[in-house]
Amino acid sequence: MRPLLLINPNTNKATTAEMVRIARNAAPSGVTVEGATAQRGAPLIYDDDKLAIGAKAVIGLAEISGKVFRDHRLRIRDPGMDQLRLKSCLCQNSNGKD
After folding, report:
1. Beta-strand runs (E) in the chain
2. Cα 87 to Cα 43: distance, rounded to the nearest angstrom
3. Quick one: which of 23, 34, 48, 83 is 20 to 30 A from 6 by CA?
């Protein structure tokens, strides 16, 4: 099974649950989807300031999760993805294996 960590950059857990439900229904066989919700920030991202806060939340959750990261661009704006690309190879897990 390949894990996919879906990180919601806002603090709305109901939104995370709905995003995970949609992703699980769309995921190919063998992919498991888990959700993570920002612990701090905005309950809704509606401007660039809130987007910047969401980006920090995404980076924080990604760095502590230890999950496999893949660059799946499902939305027009993915806060934090550019910074994560610069910090690490998104194709590897903590063991350095795909």
Report:
1. 2-8, 31-37
2. 26
3. 48
| Distance set, CA 29 to CA 2, 20, 33, 71 (Å) | 9, 15, 11, 18
pTM of the entire predicted model? 0.64
Supply 28's token pair.
């190919």
d(CA 93, CA 31): 15
Q: pLDDT 10s per residue in the chain (98 long)?
A: 788 888 888 999 999 999 999 999 999 999 899 899 988 888 988 888 888 888 888 888 877 765 544 444 444 356 666 666 655 544 444 444 44
